[in-house]
Design goal:
With about 350 residues, this protein is an all-alpha fold. The protein has 14 helices and four strands. It is about 65% helix and about 5% strand. Strand 1 and strand 2 form a beta hairpin.
Length: about 350
């Protein structure tokens, strides 16, 4: 019992430390990426190549005067950013960073929450993100904040449907809910060179999932909840100092969690990148390290893709956003699910 508690505690510390430690780096990549795409310098004063600028921003948020408007609903106003951050972290609890391994006479699973239904827990926890946003908009007692919160919830509900159809299609295809089994099914190569990743089996589901995670995380071109040119700053308009920083952190951690889920479903999760198996053949003890490295590299590529899209595409008009979700992606997702079920059914006959 004591060993199990220590194991869970250590895994929880790692799961919290990795995304929180990566936040300054991701913010720096976002700023430098924006500068690169706009042909300007970006952060270049604090530290070499401006790499310490995110730490300076953290210090600013910590010591900045906190403005507490008198017209807000105090308890819920304070609770909303905390709920947003906790809900963003929750999906990470069931995301494995490596395959199970033997240690101290027992099998160690690298995720905090081990369950065959872990994939559903991750998506259920991710969907709760709308509650923190809606609570922030309502508690701010501001019409722009409320409008931003309603926009965020409406688009999350709309795009969760098409995203769910892609997830169910992949579960039918893999024949399991177990994340480790899904990843194992994507290990190896077709024709000796093409990875057995889900994106090659289900490109339509991958596209639906990718669009859905942009809407889920309120990132451009789907950042209607924060449309500065329309509703000032949306649901976090009345927030400042560390409360605003918590929303800021929640957005980036949500990006990490959704990117990890996307990679698990369509890019092999922690399965080794092409070429790494040659290293494992010579040094099998490095397998877990290389699996963690593979997952981090894949998530890093997805974060860069988020940055690339943000500084490339303009914000959608709200009615066009909703039309895309309900009239285009949802029918496509249902059709793709039906075709997948039929293919799996006849394949198993």
């Amino acid at each position: 019992m004591l060993e199990a508690m220590i194991e869970i505690l250590l895994k929880t510390v790692v799961i919290l430390a990795l995304p929180l430690g990566a936040l300054p780096l991701i913010i720096h990549v976002e700023r430098r990426g924006a500068a690169f795409m706009q042909r300007r310098l970006g952060p270049n004063r604090v530290g070499p190549f401006g790499i310490l600028q995110p730490l300076a921003d953290v210090a600013k948020f910590m010591f900045k005067e906190e403005v507490h408007p008198t017209h807000v609903r105090p308890f819920f106003y304070t609770a909303a950013p905390m709920i947003a951050l906790v809900v963003a972290i929750l999906p990470l609890a069931c995301i494995p960073v490596a395959a199970p391994f033997e240690a101290f006479g027992r099998t160690i699973f690298p995720e905090v929450f081990r369950s065959d239904m872990g994939i559903f827990f991750a998506f259920a926890a991710s969907a709760l993100g709308s509650y923190g946003i809606l609570l922030a908009g309502w508690a701010s007692n501001n019409k722009y904040s409320m409008l931003g919160a309603l926009r965020a919830c409406a688009q999350m509900v709309s795009y969760e449907l098409s995203l769910s159809t892609s997830v169910v299609a992949m579960i039918f295809l893999y024949g399991t809910n177990d994340i480790h089994v899904m990843i194992a099914a994507q290990t190896g190569y077709w024709f000796g060179f093409l990875p057995k990743w889900g994106v090659f089996l289900q490109p339509v589901a991958a596209m639906l999932f990718l669009v859905g995670i942009f809407a889920e995380s309120n990132r451009l071109p789907f950042d209607l909840a924060e449309g500065e040119s329309e509703i000032v700053a949306g649901y976090h308009l009345e927030y400042s100092s560390m409360k605003f920083a918590l929303f800021f952190m929640a957005e980036y951690i949500h990006m990490i969690a959704l990117s990890a889920l996307f990679i698990i479903m369509f890019f092999g999760g922690y399965s080794l990148l092409p070429g790494m198996e040659l290293i494992v053949e010579r040094a099998p003890i490095l397998l877990a390290v290389l699996q963690v490295t593979s997952l981090i590299i894949k998530i890093g590529c997805m974060i860069w893709f988020f940055v690339w899209v943000r500084w490339t595409l303009p914000r959608f008009r709200y009615d066009k956003l909703m039309d895309l979700g309900w009239e285009r992606l949802l029918p496509l997702g249902i059709a793709n699910l039906i075709v997948t079920v039929l293919i799996v059914y006849f394949r198993n006959q």
